[in-house]
Design goal:
Enzyme class: lyase
Pfam families: Ribonuclease_T2
Protein name: ribonuclease T2
CATH architecture: Alpha-Beta Complex
Distance between the termini: 27 Å
Number of helices: 7
Family: Belongs to the RNase T2 family.
Number of domains: 1
Order of helices and strands: HEEHHHHHEHEEEE
EC number: 4.6.1.19
CATH topology: Ribonuclease Rh, Chain A
Number of strands: 7
Low-confidence stretches: 1-16
Helix content: 25-40%
Structural class: alpha+beta
Length: 252
């Protein structure tokens, strides 16, 4: 039941957000799976793999005690390498103002709960994620919009990251496999990987610090643009940074 519910939710989330972007053919190939090296408004390149990344912060704790939190959405060059900070002219630092101007108050409220900075400076965290990663997603460049309005792509980016995150409930997927936060229990890498692979449909990157689970990255290839294109789960391009056994998953 859990897997079916997640799969249905993911399907509904990954089909589009009705952005004002140029229409893309449904016959176009998925990013990373094509020999094309030409970036277009309908083909993500060179950052053809998109990673929805999450945190489990416990020192200090961030976000709800029964949920992971958002790290970001990162374009990867299909091989584990990536470009960053691709357009300094669009490295906006007033994310809250932009979202409020666009009438995305509900999105902003959600981000304040689930996309939180470990030092309490959410605004700087969001600006960092947009400037470093969002500006490198070529299919949301201003030229890709029809009737573009200033900073339209910024709101679309944050909305898409949140939509993806809502379809990837890491806490629930682990709990369904009997993997819950504990001060005494430890878990194996294979058990954690299996639980999240079952939800996502492909293997994920798992990160640990001092043997404590604290990160997960979900990899996708995209057909069409990054906002209303079709997302397909693909296996991790990066080896997990956790030990094979004795992994701690401590409570917030």
């Amino acid at each position: 039941m859990f897997q079916s519910a997640v799969a249905l939710a993911a399907m509904s989330l990954l089909t589009g957000t009705n952005a004002d972007l140029q229409t893309c053919s449904t016959n176009s190939g998925y990013s990373c799976a094509s020999s094309s090296t030409t970036p277009t408004c309908c083909f993500n390149y060179p950052g053809g793999a998109l990673l929805q990344t999450q945190f489990w912060d416990t020192s200090p704790s961030t976000g709800p005690s029964t949920s992971w939190t958002i790290h970001g959405l990162w374009p990867d060059n299909c091989d584990g390498t990536y470009e960053s900070s691709c357009d300094s002219s669009r490295a906006y630092t007033n994310i809250t103002d932009i979202l409020q101007t666009q009438g995305r108050d509900d999105l902003l409220d959600y981000m304040d709960e689930y996309w939180v900075d470990i030092n309490g400076d959410n605004e700087s965290f969001w600006a960092h994620e947009w400037g470093k990663h969002g500006t490198c997603i070529n299919t949301i460049d201003p030229d890709c919009y029809q009737g573009y309005t200033a900073q339209e792509e910024v709101g679309d980016f944050f909305e898409k990251v949140v939509d993806l995150f809502k379809g990837l409930d890491t806490y629930k997927a682990l709990a369904a496999a009997g993997i819950t936060p504990s001060t005494s229990k430890t878990y194996t890498l294979s058990a954690i990987q299996s639980a999240l692979t079952e939800m996502h449909g492909a293997s994920v990157y798992l990160g640990c610090s001092s043997g404590k689970l604290n990160q997960v990255w979900y990899f996708y290839n995209v057909q069409g643009n990054a906002i209303d294109g079709s997302y397909k789960a693909v296996k991790t391009l990066t080896n997990s940074g956790c030990p094979s056994t004795g992994i701690k998953y401590v409570p917030k």
